[in-house]
Write a structure and sequence with these properties.
Arc Repressor Mutant, subunit A, elongated, 3 domains, three-stranded parallel beta sheet, transcription regulation, two-stranded antiparallel sheet, 9 strands, D-Maltodextrin-Binding Protein, domain 2, alpha/beta
Length: 232
């Protein structure tokens, strides 16, 4: 359906006058009448009743009105999105909360300081959700501790980082330390399991490095955090 026909229909329904609708649309009155007839022919129903200068919507016109408004709003949004995509190239980058908080946020800050016109989308989610988005082409770049094992995806190692076991400075050294489990990926989890006692049940499991650091003092516990945080 031609959106110009719907646009004309909406203007006539708003002004209830073919002449005023024509002025608003920068058309002749005959052009407005022709468009309305075209729309009526396509729908197989009269949309307006015309008695001299008294123009009203028919029941069919009343039913069409909300759909026409919705279609035109959707069309305007679609045009804006297309124009925006032509003006800017937006890159979507995904990572877990722990990676964003520990390593990627400073990198992103430095990137924006170098290039102010960047258009990026930073997504924070669980790894399996991000892998799914990457596979379905809803995500451009995934930064993770373990590359997905998919033939259609290309991977490249960016860098290495190290973790250290941090603990509360005010803990009771005679009492066993509660453990906070921070998700760093399956590979690290295997090493973690070998290092810790089998009955050491975490008091908290989280994906947030900042939350883990804040709760070390509260719980008097320990957790694996980025080594560079020791200097902070």
């Amino acid at each position: 359906m031609d959106t110009e026909l719907l646009k004309t229909f909406l203007e006539v329904s708003r002004t209830r006058h073919f002449g005023r609708a024509a002025e608003s649309l920068y058309l002749t009155q005959s052009a407005v009448s022709f468009r309305i007839r075209q729309l009526e022919n396509q729908l197989g129903a009269n949309l307006f009743t015309r008695h001299r200068n008294n123009i009203r919507l028919t029941p069919a016109g009343e039913r069409l009105l909300p759909y026409a408004e919705s279609l035109m709003n959707t069309w305007q949004l679609a045009k804006k999105e297309v124009v925006r995509s032509l003006q800017h190239t937006e890159l979507s980058i995904g990572a877990t909360a722990s990676l964003w908080e520990a390593y990627l946020t400073p990198w992103l800050q430095a990137l924006y300081q170098q290039r102010e016109a960047l258009q990026l989308e930073a997504r924070v989610a669980l790894r399996h959700s991000l892998v799914k988005q990457l596979h379905e082409r809803q995500l451009d770049l995934l930064i993770t501790t373990e590359p997905p094992k998919m033939d259609e995806l290309a991977s490249q190692q960016l860098s290495n980082f190290s973790l250290r076991l941090f603990s509360s400075a005010h803990r009771d050294k005679q009492a066993p330390m509660p453990y906070i489990k921070l998700e760093w990926g399956a590979d690290f989890h295997q090493q973690e399991s070998r290092m810790l006692e089998g009955d050491n049940v975490p008091v908290l499991t989280t994906t947030s490095a900042h939350l883990t650091r804040q709760l070390l003092e509260t719980t008097g516990g320990c957790a694996f955090l980025p080594s560079q945080w020791e200097q902070e």
